Predict the structure.
Amino acid sequence: MSEIAVSNLSKAFGPHKAVDDVSFTVASGEFVVLLGPSGCGKSTTLRLIAGLEQPSTGAISIHGRDVTQAGPSQRQISMVFQSYAVFPHLDVARNIVFGLEVRGVGKQERLARLARVADIVGLTPYLARRPAELSGGQRQRVALARAIISERPVCLMDEPLSNLDAKLRHEMRVEIRELQQRLGMTMLYVTHDQIEAMTMADRVILMKDGRIEQDGTPADLYVRPRTTFTARFVGLPPMNFIPAPDETGTVGIRAEDLSITASGGRLSGTVAAIEYLGADTRVSVDWQGLTLVARVPGASRLKRGDPAGLSWDDAAEHHFDIRGERRHAVRRFEHA
Ligand code: ATP
């Protein structure tokens, strides 16, 4: 059964449709990420599901019950939002267990759960502090701990890791995913960070201008992007695009599918930049006014200004039509 089902959901703010006819489901125990650029409507979608906004049209059900008109407290969910609402007058421990106290969970169980959750989010040394004595990242972890400790089967998170440094963000990605799987939580998670989406999600729903652009597994979006928008948004560096020679669309090639030689190749250009990343190197090549990026293993001997030939296998090509939609019938092109 789907734990969350959203059908034909729309939300207008004045004339602007922030969410425009969105439908999807999240199955029990599934981790689904709403991904997309700033302003695409992902937070509004989450707030509608949380009951913090009322939809203009459409329906929402949670645990098989229509909650479209229900208040947030009637929806049986936990939430973590970017603007972490912590109580300033309570210490960290009380902030974390507050919801359990309200629900009448016994003291012994509260303390046991607190110890476990504080350890997971790395707040054990800070339990006696007030929120004012914490950094932004630590406050965010208090909000995260509060959602985790509630052990509600459905959890909504909106950019919960945005204030953490890179190392902690990585650790928390792994922790949240591990915890979600262990507890069998159903998770709907909003982020604009494609690395979070790719590494954590069972399924990614990519949004653009209030609509769903593509809904699939991380591998679906990476390997078979349905549009050039998806192909650009998912993957680092973004997919390279070259015009189809007959100007009927574009051909996309991932950086790791391009190989570089000093001469020859299917396209000849000039090295514009070299970025050494340790395990691999990104080489940017200027070709007819376009910059194409190749990812080569280890270091590269090439220097800026060197001639560079680019090659790839036909099978690595992604073909898109003039509207940016994936072509199903694949045509082969030769570039001069
Ligand atoms: P971000 O990653 O920047 O938070 P988002 O994808 O979550 O972006 P939303 O916050 O859902 O985007 O906003 C979608 C659109 O709706 C934006 O154009 C935003 O300006 C608009 N919007 C959101 N909330 C309101 C509001 N309360 N009143 C008017 N417009 C709003």
